[in-house]
Design brief:
- Helix 5 packs antiparallel against helix 6.
- The protein has two domains: about 260 residues, Beta Polymerase, domain 2, CATH 3.30.460; about 45 residues, no CATH class.
- By secondary structure, it is an alpha+beta fold.
- It is about 60% helix and about 10% strand.
- A hairpin with a 2-residue loop joins strand 3 and strand 4.
- The protein is rod-shaped, with a radius of gyration of 34 Å.
- The chain contains ten helices and six strands; from the N terminus they run E-H-E-H-H-H-E-E-E-E-H-H-H-H-H-H.
- About 0% of the residues have low confidence.
- The chain starts with a strand and ends with a helix.
């Protein structure tokens, strides 16, 4: 889908002028077709990178200058409000007069800036829209990290201040630990996604500010510098959050190990307790001709008492030692 902003009366598609009208400042391509790519390349006289090119991870592929035009790319989190959040590449082709964005997923940050374009005069230039997009992405990243931080604190309280182990219902306890582990893993994945986005946005913001200082006004230079400072502070918070997530992950795994050890301890005690009565029952189960106990009047009750006592004594011993 191709959307043109500041296109008065649809002049882009109706005009026969090979150059874009001066009012056009932003062309947004959402999962573009080949026809839309060719149209933008022909009218805007810029190259529209492919999805494969935008997905390259090396800095030399994400930060390119060709004939005064900046070709930038960074991953952006798509479906950030759902459990199915994923990273999607986004490209920015920036010149002093025009911004072309290429994306392959619906992004709330782009939609929010798009609503402001027609009414906010500070966005009446390509660098204005570009700066607003970076600010929106950083603001969105800050909101996500705050949410993840609150969720991490909640899980931390439940792990260290609550009782994740249910002695009477070990299956339920295991289910709780498994669910906690899943939540911690999901938070770790979202934190990793936020790290990738902040790293990419920080790179393209700094690159643009350095190479476009001749045509970027002082106001937007200051705003881009502010974006860099915000990203630096968010990176510190993200590193702290990542460390906390790793600590929680280790703690939950430790609890699971303790649960397993307790289970094996019970099985070991049960097997040890069963040995003495088994031995006694085996002895008295031998049908030898000469076995005095077989002729005793109280032989059978005595044998049952001895077997019961051989079971109780180990249990008392283990309890006194604090083994269970």
């Amino acid at each position: 889908m191709l959307t043109v902003y500041r296109d008065e009366g649809g002049a882009v598609r109706t005009s026969t002028d090979p150059d874009l009208p001066g009012a056009v400042i932003w062309i947004d391509l959402l999962d573009p077709t080949q026809e839309e790519r060719d149209f933008v390349e022909g009218r805007a006289r810029v190259r529209v990178p492919s999805k494969q090119a935008l997905s390259e991870i090396e800095a030399t592929s994400r930060l390119i200058v060709e004939r005064g035009v900046l070709y930038l790319s960074t991953p952006i989190v798509a479906r950030g409000d759902t459990q199915d959040a994923y990273l999607s590449p986004a490209g920015f082709v920036l010149s002093p007069k025009l911004l072309v964005t290429i994306r392959y997923a619906e992004l709330s940050t782009f939609d929010a800036v798009a609503e402001r374009v027609h009414s906010d005069e500070t966005l009446a230039s390509s660098i204005g829209v570009f700066t607003a997009l970076l600010e929106a992405v950083v603001d969105r990243g800050a909101d996500v990290l705050e949410h993840l931080g609150a969720e991490t604190d909640r899980i931390s309280r439940s792990v260290f201040r609550g009782d994740t182990a249910d002695r009477r219902h070990p299956v339920r306890s295991t289910r709780v630990l498994r669910e906690t582990l899943r939540k911690v893993g999901a938070i770790g994945e979202r934190v990793s996604q936020a790290r990738d986005v902040l790293l990419g946005v920080g790179r393209i913001g700094s690159f643009t500010n350095d190479l476009g200082h001749e045509w970027i006004g002082p106001e937007f230079q200051v705003r881009l510098s502010a974006v860099q400072k915000d990203i630096a502070s968010l990176n510190d918070y993200e590193a702290h959050l990542a460390g906390k997530v790793q600590f929680l992950l280790d703690a939950v795994l430790g609890y699971i190990t303790i649960e397993q050890n307790d289970l094996f301890k019970v099985l070991t005690i049960a097997s040890v307790v069963g040995i003495p009565p088994t031995v006694m029952a085996g002895i008295w189960g031998m049908n030898f001709k000469f076995m005095p106990e077989l002729d005793w009047h109280w032989g059978y009750p005595l044998a049952l008492a001895a077997i019961t006592l051989s079971t109780i004594v180990p249990l008392v011993w283990f309890k006194a030692r604090g083994w269970f």
